Amino acid sequence: MTVTIYTQSSCSSSRKAIKWLKENNIAYSEKRITSQPLTLAEFKNILRMTEDGTDEIIATNSNDFKNLNVDIDQLSIQDLYNLIQQHPRMLRSPILLDEKRIQVGYNEMDIRRFIPRKVRAYELNAMQKLATQG
Asked: What InterPro entries has UniProt attached to this entry (predicted)?
């Protein structure tokens, strides 16, 4: 299972997430949305995976978003997509996803969800053994 990570240039959270994926030997493909705009299918897939829709992926505190002075809740999916094409920095980054999971932003604990379940179970078992031996 490959993780797709959507990043932005000069984003420290994106760099941290990529470093973590490499350190944990997790296969990933990176797409830098500032130079390779999202396709409509990618955008719809990201939205489909969110729990809170646009609230989860739009960086409302970004200058790009503030300068637009637009109510995104009033936009159609196509209009929002067109706006993001023109202003990709209004998206939060990084956005990581695979077939089952999505994570927006970098969080050291939450990103562990991308470690395969068998590996997580093995690590938990090893920690429990250590705890009972101590």
From this structure: Arsenate_reductase-like (IPR006660), Thioredoxin-like_sf (IPR036249), Tscrpt_reg_Spx/MgsR (IPR006504)
Catalytic residues: 11
| Token pair in block for residue 110 | 């939450």
Q: Which structure tokens are listed for 16?
A: 């941290």
Provide the number of structural domains found in the chain: 1
Residue 94, preceding peptide bond in cis (omega within 30° of 0): yes
Tell me the residue range of the domain where 79 lies. 3-132
Q: What is the pLDDT along the chain (134 residues), one digit of tens a residue?
A: 799 999 998 899 999 999 999 999 999 999 999 999 999 999 999 999 999 999 999 999 988 899 998 999 899 999 999 999 999 999 999 999 999 999 999 999 899 889 877 766 666 777 788 888 86
In the chain the first and final C-alpha atoms are separated, in Å, by 36
Do residues 28 and 3 touch, judged by C-beta distance below 8 A?
yes
DSSP run (H or E) holding 133: helix 117-133
